[in-house]
Every structure is written in C-alpha cells, then in structure tokens.
Amino acid sequence: MKSFSYYVHIPYCVRRCGYCDFNTYTPSELQDGASLEIVSADYIDAVLRELETTPTDEVSTIFFGGGTPSLIPPKDLGRVLTAIRNRNGITDDCEITLEANPDSVTQEKLDGYIAAGFNRISFGMQSNKEHVLKVLDRTHNPENVRKAVDMARAAGFPSISVDLIYGAPGESLSDWASTVKEALSLDIDHISAYALIVEDGTKLAAQIKRGELTMPDDDLMADMYLLVDQQCLQKGMKWYELSNWSKPGHQSRHNITYWKSNNWWGLGPGAHSHIDQKRFWNVKHPTAYKEKVFAGESPIKDSEILSDEQKKSEYIMLAIRMPAGVRKAALTIAQYERTMEYIKSGHIIDLPDAIALTPTGRLIADRITQEMLA
After folding, report:
1. Could you read off the pLDDT of 39-89 as tens digits, one per residue?
2. Does 298 map to a domain?
3. Cβ proximity of 103 and 140 under 8 Å
4. What does the DSSP assignment read for 173-230?
5. Are residues 230 and 338 in the same domain?
6. Is residue 47 part of a domain?
7. Which of 34, 265, 365, 373 is the most buried (most CB within 10 A)?
8. Please, what is the angle between helix 107-116 and helix 143-155, to 10°?
9. Backbone torsions φ then ψ of 88, nearest 5 degrees
10. How far apart are CA 220 and CA 23, in angstroms?
11. How many domains does the chain have?
12. What is the spatial distance between Cα 204 and Cα 21, in angstroms, rounded to a whole number?
C-alpha cells in the first residue's frame, strides 16, 4: 500500500513577519476590525468539507502548518483529526505534527493538543537574539521558547522540534552560535535550520532595497551552516536532509514524504497536493476557498501532470538533499560524468551505488544539482 499523508493549512497569524511571504493573513487583513475567532469560525467546517473529496487511503502522517496552527483551539483541530481517523483510518505509528508559536501556547492548550491526538510539535524559535528577532519581525519573547518546550514535554509530546533561521541582516557568527547553543540546550529531538531567503514583496526585501539593512556574505552563511551541523552532531543529532537534524527515530516523516515524492493531499487555501504523477493546488485566499467549498465546488485552482522526465529531474533534486544521495541507476552517463570534478574536490562522495554530498558539498547543493540537470 502506498504511503498517504495530509497537510492541513491554517492561514492565520496575529501579525505578519517582515520576511514572510507564506499564504497567511492577520484577522484585520481579512475583515476590518475582526477578531481571529470571527474570521476562523467556519474555517474548520470548510476543511472538513474538502476532506470529503479526498482519497480514503490509510494515513501515515498529518501536518498542521501555517500560519500559526497553535492559535486554533485543540477542540477545533481535533475535529479534523477525528474526521480523518473515522474516514481514512490512521496507521498505528501515524506522526501528527503541530506548528506552534512559543507565545501562543499554555499548559492547558498543550494538554488539549495531546488529548486530540497530536504527538509531535515544532516551535518557531528562529533566534535567541532580540536584535535578530526584531529584524525578522518575530513577535515571541525568546525566553518563552524554553517554557514552551518544557510545557510540551510535560504535556507528553514524544517528539519536539525547533525551527531556526540564520543569515538575518546584522546577525554575526557569534550571535548564531549563541542561538544554536541555546536551542541544543532545550529538551528537543529535532532542529530545522534554514538560511534566510529574502522574498520579493516582503517588508524585509523593501528594507534591503532601501539600504536600511545588509545581507551577510556567502562565506558567513557557509560558516553558519557548518557550525549548526557540527554542534548538532556533537549533541547526537544527525543530518537527514539539508536543513534538518534529529536524534535517532525523530526525523520528520511528513517532510520525508515530500522529499521522496510520496502521495499527500493539502487541505486549505493555497495548499498543494501530489497524487501519483499529478500535482495540484487550491485557490489562495481563505474567503475564496470557503466560498467554493461551501458552494459544493472544488477549491482546486490549477494542476499539472508530471512527465517521466520531470519526475526523474525531481528525484535528483530531492534525493541529493538526503544522506543516501542519488542512485547511480537514476543518472545518465552524462549526468554522472558532470559530478566528477565535485568528487575530486571533495564535495561529493562516490558510493558503490549512489553519489552523496559531503558537508562542504551541501553548501553548494543547488549549484551541483543545476549542473547535473543542465
């Protein structure tokens, strides 16, 4: 039986972060002067309506992302989990993840998420330096991260992760070292560390364009990546994808679903899905999404059928990001030959049946991929 997963999009935030171009909305952006309770009141009903149109395969992972899913009460997110259980069934070891802002949880709330069926939580930490959080427009108090992690462990979460971002304007290597040290001192099992990408149209992009902020150079970004990689390894966390490290048995199986191009269905506005060789995505705005779903119409905005050639290219792009690397059998002779200079320079390991990246190779993964697919 094929693996099947659900992603559930929660498109609400208290405020928009300066670097964020995700499909998320503050209550006032959706309805002038409205509260979160008002704008999200019938949202779960809409998600449940879309759920009725999806495959009925047994589910191995469920991921609530956003936005800020932890703004929504446990009983409401629990309605979605109950519906999936009753309709599809879930595997005995189904991984059920909640993304959370450290400021938006209480002990009672976390107990409620455990009761609803969640067994993994990922806190947006980003940094423990206030000047970095200010540049990123993050709302949480850095001290609340430790409190949130401790409360989540007390509630009974068996797997806890934190998300970090490096390379913010004004962040030094010592700032980043402090953040990584603090993160690894927490009672966690997993770290995601992403290089900051400045997206067009964001507040941060405008500040950089005006010369108010300056991005760090590539050498500093490389040092930051190697630092988190080394520190995680010393704490018993191994990399299992370019930006992710975990203790044994605590990898995000949901994210591995994406990297292995397994089947998943994204519920909610702007959510993307992938079923066999078809990829499709929903209308982006929550109001348009709800209107379509409640009218009995499909919320799918567009789709594409992936050719065999596209599937092969995507396999290379995704597999190179993981320790097992790319199977040689999946490469043409020309593609394999293009990796030779990187094997000689120590960026790629030439294994008997595959090629895989070394730590320095991971720093230029995109360049290597582009050259292989050229």
Report:
1. 787 999 999 999 999 999 999 999 999 889 999 999 999 999 999 999 999
2. no
3. yes
4. HHHHHHHHHHHHTSS-SEEEEEE----TTSHHHHHHHTTSS-PPPHHHHHHHHHHHHH
5. no
6. yes
7. 265
8. 40
9. -100, -35
10. 30
11. 2
12. 10
Is 245 buried (19+), middle (13-18) or exposed (0-12) by CB count in 10 A? buried
The first and second tokens of residue 259, run together, are 């990297």
278 vs 363: CA distance, rounded Å:
31
CATH number of the domain where residue 81 is located: 3.20.20.70
Q: Closest Cα to residue 105, out of 164, 64, 155? A: 155
What is the spatial distance between Cα 221 and Cα 197, in angstroms, rounded to a whole number?
12
Phi, psi of 311 (to 5 degrees): -60, -40
Going through the chain in order, the beta strands assigned E by DSSP cover: 4-10, 59-66, 90-100, 120-126, 159-166, 190-195, 238-241, 244-246, 263-267, 272-275, 278-282, 300-305, 326-327, 348-350, 354-357
For the whole prediction, is pTM greater than 0.90?
yes
Domain that holds residue 159: 4-259
294 domain-assigned:
no
CA distances (Å), origin 346, targets 144, 209, 338: 42, 37, 14
Residues 234 and 341 in one domain: no
Q: How far apart are CA 14 and CA 162, in angstroms?
A: 20
Cα separation values, 312 from 75, 102, 114, 280, 344, Å: 42, 40, 39, 19, 25
**CB burial of residue 24 (10 Å; 0-12, 13-18, 19+):** buried
283 found inside a domain: no
Q: Is 36 helix (H, G, I), strand (E, B) or coil?
A: helix
Indicate whether 196 pLDDT > 70.
yes
Closest CA to 160 of 149, 175, 146, 176: 149
**CB contact set of 206 (below 8 Å; sequence gap of 6+):** none
Among 228, 259, 290, the domain-final residue is 259
